[in-house]
Design a protein that fits this description.
With about 190 residues, the protein is of the alpha/beta class. It has a domain at about 70-190: Trna Endonuclease, Chain: A, domain 1 (3-Layer(aba) Sandwich), CATH 3.40.1350. The chain contains 7 helices and 7 strands. A 5-stranded mixed sheet has the order 1-2-3-5-7. Strands 4-6 form a two-stranded parallel ribbon. Strand 2 and strand 3 form a beta hairpin. The radius of gyration is 33 Å and the shape is elongated.
Length: about 190
């Protein structure tokens, strides 16, 4: 065997470090703790995201059912419904005249703020005219902000004008969430 060792290594003896198997390194306890904590946090985040997605899907579906019912209302019935809805959110709601409303169907009051509401009970898309009406109502009734609320959705031009003029757009999805909040508050009062 010595002749084989000499052939492989020459006349020198093999280095002990080269012949020994590497020892597994022991993980630093603090590093292990941090890795486990990070893994736990990632898993919790994943589970929370899944639960939130399920909740949003349920809310969207359930809220959509109510939106479909609202689409059957006439304009003044929808305005009455919105007045009730916003009252549950802590607003005082004042209806404007049915004709000659200057672009606002409701005026909301809360925390020294006045908000002009243009209500559109539509099945399709609400256009730029509704945003313009809300802005007109805001100016006429001396409000600090304007909102357009619809059972439908908005055209791209309406969204752009609302963004440029700080008009809040509440479409069917957000309206559905407000309805669910109202129902939750109502059922809590009866419990």
């Amino acid at each position: 065997m010595s002749w084989l060792r000499n052939l492989i290594f020459g006349n020198e003896a093999p280095n002990k470090q080269e012949t020994q198997q590497p020892q597994p390194t022991k993980e630093d306890p603090q590093a292990k703790y941090l890795r486990n904590t990070l893994d736990f946090a990632k898993q919790q985040r994943k589970e929370l995201r899944h639960k939130q997605n399920e909740h949003e899907r349920w809310q969207h579906h359930y809220g959509s059912l109510h939106i479909d019912e609202l689409k059957k209302l006439c304009g003044t019935e929808f305005e009455d419904y919105l007045a009730k809805l916003f009252k549950t959110q802590g607003y005082l709601a004042e209806k404007t005249p049915i004709t000659g409303d200057y672009g606002a169907d409701l005026i909301l009051h809360k925390d020294q703020q006045r908000i002009a509401i243009q209500a559109k009970c539509y099945t399709g898309s609400v256009g730029v005219a509704a945003v313009q009406e809300a802005l007109s109502g805001m100016a006429y009734y001396r409000c600090q902000s304007a909102w357009v609320v619809t059972t439908g959705n908005y055209t791209a031009n309406a969204v752009e004008l609302a963004r440029q003029s700080n008009v809040r757009l509440i479409g069917s999805k957000e309206l559905g969430k407000l309805i669910l909040q109202m129902q939750g508050q109502t059922s809590n009062r009866h419990d």
